[in-house]
Write a structure and sequence with these properties.
heterodimer; A: mainly alpha; 2 domains; 4 helices; B: mainly alpha; Four Helix Bundle (Hemerythrin (Met), subunit A); two-stranded antiparallel ribbon; two-stranded antiparallel sheet; 6% strand
Chain lengths: 143, 247
């Protein structure tokens, strides 16, 4: 193995012999392909379910999201070799990405709240001084 | 987590070496990719917010159901699955190129870089076909009581809540949400531009390999950095595929 130290900043390099390398690449390729095929199958399942059952469709979509996260893990950990780096480094990548947890929660929450407000007028508060005058009149409606 | 043999009692933060055991260039590539992940994340999350706020959103199985050479046959998800497999395969050839680089195997790096470039170009070709299909495919749509012919653009689309309804002897759709095209073309375009720049970077790397630059330098770490970028493009596609086509 002619693996070289690319930089004096590095104190050791990881050695992986050819046979174990090819075994891992083959395994990850098969995993990614199978997961993609399962996702495809579930996508078509959503198609056949149509709009029959909201709960069933949401469950299938949830499963697809989890499978995609699994794919993301395999790509970063094995193809990008993040799993072979030292813990210090892995943490500087993973910890900032945890912001996504709140980022996604907050914005999707906001989106569904917006839909709720649009559909119900729950968000339109009459101005305090004009409460009596506009009682029972929908906002935006002609007087 | 690490499988490498770390010398016992290594003091990572005492100076003189990288506390992450990684070269400056690779470290910065990782941080660039992290910031890029936030950019893509922001785009996809804004798309999610709009979709959650809408009472109706087009079903991707109805929008993306065409395959080149199969005319109007209803083949939901088939073409985009092909695109996904093309990217996965080109990611695998990139891994093999990086490994050949570790072994200082110049012929191997050349071979696998060429396959990776070919995969990238194939993906871009597929995307060009898909965009053309959406931009030129016109459907009769009932807009304000008038039947007009609409394609899918950033301004309008024919994928409304009612499809194939009879109106004065015409089979028509109703217009779909305006933002559908903007998000679709914006995000897949931004990803496609990443693929394009990845292909350009890979071509530059291929030329440098051919010229023997990395043999002179004594290592093929540049191939690793280009590889990180290329895998990231594949990684983003996992989420674009998820958000636009699957759910």
């Amino acid at each position: 193995m002619g693996q070289q130290l690319a930089s004096p900043e590095i104190s050791f390099v990881e050695h992986k012999d050819d046979s174990s390398f090819y075994r891992i690449v083959k395994k990850i390729t098969i995993i990614l392909s199978i997961v993609t095929l399962i996702e495809l199958g579930l996508g078509l399942l959503i198609y056949s379910l149509g709009h029959e059952s909201h709960l069933a469709v949401m469950t299938v979509k949830g499963v697809i999201v989890i499978l995609s996260l699994a794919k993301a893990f395999y790509i970063t950990s094995y193809f990008m070799h993040l799993g072979d780096e030292i813990r210090n480094f892995i943490m500087t990548i993973i910890v900032p990405l945890l912001l996504f947890v709140w980022f996604i929660t907050a914005f999707l929450w906001d989106g569904s709240s917006w839909r709720n407000l649009k559909n119900t007028d729950a968000g339109s508060r009459p101005a305090t001084e004009q409460t009596e005058q506009y009682k029972g009149v929908k906002p935006g409606a002609d007087k | 987590m690490s499988t490498a043999a770390i010398p016992a009692g290594t003091k990572w933060w005492s100076g003189g070496k990288s506390p992450f055991n990684i070269s400056y260039g690779k470290l910065m590539m990782w941080y660039f990719l992290m910031s890029d992940a936030f950019t893509f994340g922001a785009f996809l999350i804004s798309y999610g917010t709009i979709r959650f706020s809408a009472n109706y959103w087009p079903d991707p199985n109805h929008v993306f159901n065409a395959f080149p050479g199969f005319g109007h046959m209803n083949l939901p998800l088939a073409f985009v699955s092909l695109m996904t497999f093309i990217l996965i395969v080109s990611s695998v050839t990139m891994v093999l190129a990086v490994h050949a680089g570790h072994n200082m195997d110049r012929k191997g790096v050349e071979k696998y870089m060429l396959w990776t470039i070919l995969g990238g170009l194939a993906f871009l070709g597929c995307q060009a076909w898909e965009w053309t299909h959406l931009l030129t495919g016109e459907h009769p749509v009932l807009v304000d009581g008038v039947v007009s012919s609409l394609n899918t653009t950033v301004a309008h689309n024919p994928w409304g809540p009612e499809s194939s309804v009879l109106h004065e002897g015409h089979i028509v759709n109703t217009p779909g949400p305006k933002l559908f095209g903007g998000f679709f073309f914006g995000i897949t375009g931004f990803h496609g531009f990443h693929v394009l720049s990845g292909v350009v970077i890979n071509i530059i790397m291929y030329i440098k390999v051919r010229l023997g630059h990395f043999d002179q330098r004594g290592h093929y770490e540049m191939i690793e950095k280009a590889g990180l970028y290329w895998h990231f493009v594949d990684l983003v596609w996992v989420f674009v595929f998820l958000c636009f086509y699957l759910i």
